[in-house]
Write a sequence for this structure.
């Protein structure tokens, strides 16, 4: 239990720092805005109580919001993916597909993990980007940004699984 | 009553979700009227000091280009100094008394510790705050032109809108004939802004210089904004659609100056008294 606190605590802090100090500073022509901090929600153990996932999601989004001066935007998007996570997990898991407690890459097959990341990241980015522009005018420009950014974030997240969060 | 509690307990995660989501959306709504979010922004002590440490490291990589820009600005200022009889240089700040605008400006030099360009509402965080004399509604300029305006101030940091923020627009004018209009940003590109309110009878051509007007106490008059990039005459409209190429490269900001208008209180008081009568 204690071990979990340390592990997820370190993951929380490092994801927030990587997000605000590196990824938010890299400005890719306005179309790519990778947001990878949502990985924290993705990797919480499957049996984490729902209320804990929601509260952690809210805190995570809120911290990012304070750094980026977009109060509420990231919180709303992250709380939503935290809420929808159990449904997504159920949706994409076959019964025989025995995932265990930890929805990470090395505890599940790569295809499953990539589907999981793509779906969650897309839903997160969808809410995030529309709340951020605060309008549905230029619907397709924003949609194009969402697609590109989701693909890019997912790529970074999947790669990070190979490199960093090994254990 | 018992049934109600059982119902709440059964669907507790859904109600918690609703609660947190509504809380977030209320914050989105409130932050859009920006005065309310006074403490939860990147000028508060913790976030600003994290940004400050990181930008101190990052700044080493920019030293060469910053040096070059400073040298260029120095040379330019030296060439100007003979034209300004009313300039007074003290060890801490430069105070210039420009006869034309009849205001006294003090410039506070600051380092940009956080900045974004590709959001719909871009902010800029600076490492100077209340104890250095920074107040809300002071302008931010750099050697190339205007950068933004201060909105929030903490003890040693401040936060402002950059020109690339849909919530704010500077008062601009065409340098050639003095016609003025509001500058606005459409959220599209970090290189361009729009100049509105210029009527059709005024001659405008691509390449014309756009500078700040004297109708606001935020900036001194005549600070560079950019050059006219394209001019459109939309049918059924009374005003040109003018696209302005911004002089400042917002992707490479490192040092800026905060404009402190020492006569601002006097001007504001005068204008307020007038409306009371």
């Amino acid at each position: 239990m204690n071990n979990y606190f340390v592990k997820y605590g370190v993951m929380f802090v490092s994801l927030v720092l990587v997000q605000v100090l590196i990824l938010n500073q890299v400005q890719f022509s306005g179309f790519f805005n990778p947001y990878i901090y949502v990985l924290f929600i993705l990797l919480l153990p499957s049996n984490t109580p729902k209320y804990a996932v929601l509260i952690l999601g809210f805190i995570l989004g809120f911290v990012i919001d304070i750094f980026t001066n977009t109060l509420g935007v990231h919180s709303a998007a992250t709380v939503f993916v935290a809420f929808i996570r159990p449904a997504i997990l159920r949706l994409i898991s076959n019964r025989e597909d025995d995932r265990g407690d930890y929805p990470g890459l090395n505890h599940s097959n790569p295809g499953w993990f990539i589907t999981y990341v793509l779906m969650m990241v897309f839903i997160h980015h969808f809410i995030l980007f529309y709340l951020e522009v605060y309008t549905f005018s230029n619907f397709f420009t924003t949609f194009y940004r969402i697609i590109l950014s989701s693909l890019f974030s997912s790529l970074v997240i999947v790669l990070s699984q190979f490199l960093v969060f090994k254990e | 009553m018992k049934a109600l509690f059982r119902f709440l307990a059964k669907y507790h995660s859904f109600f918690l979700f609703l609660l947190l989501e509504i809380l977030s959306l209320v914050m989105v709504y409130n932050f859009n009227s920006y005065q309310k979010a006074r403490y939860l922004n990147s000028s508060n002590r913790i976030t600003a000091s994290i940004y400050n440490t990181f930008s101190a490291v990052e700044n080493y990589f920019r030293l060469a280009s910053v040096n070059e820009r400073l040298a260029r600005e120095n040379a330019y200022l030296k060439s100007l100094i003979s034209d300004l009889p009313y300039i007074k240089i003290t060890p801490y700040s430069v105070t210039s008394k420009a006869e034309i605008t009849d205001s006294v400006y003090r410039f506070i030099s600051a380092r940009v510790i956080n900045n974004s360009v590709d959001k719909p509402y871009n902010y800029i965080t600076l490492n100077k705050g209340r104890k250095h004399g920074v107040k809300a509604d002071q302008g931010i300029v750099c050697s190339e032109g205007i950068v933004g305006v201060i909105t929030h101030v903490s003890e040693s940091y401040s936060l402002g809108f950059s020109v690339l923020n849909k919530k704010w627009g500077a008062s601009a004018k065409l340098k050639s004939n003095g016609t003025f209009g509001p500058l606005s940003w459409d959220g599209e590109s970090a290189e361009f802004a729009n100049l509105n309110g210029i009527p059709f009878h005024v001659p405008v051509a691509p390449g014309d210089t756009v500078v700040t007007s004297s109708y606001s106490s935020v900036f001194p008059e005549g600070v560079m904004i950019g050059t006219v990039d394209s001019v459109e005459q939309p049918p059924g409209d009374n005003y040109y659609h003018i696209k302005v190429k911004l002089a400042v490269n917002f992707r490479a900001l490192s040092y800026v100056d905060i404009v402190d208008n020492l006569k601002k209180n006097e001007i504001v008081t005068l204008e307020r008294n007038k409306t009371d009568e």
About this structure: Chain A has one domain: 2-163. Residues 139-163 of chain A form the longest helix (25 residues). The domain at 2-163 of chain A is CATH 1.10.1760 (Arp2/3 complex 21 kDa subunit ARPC3). Chain A has a mean pLDDT of 84.
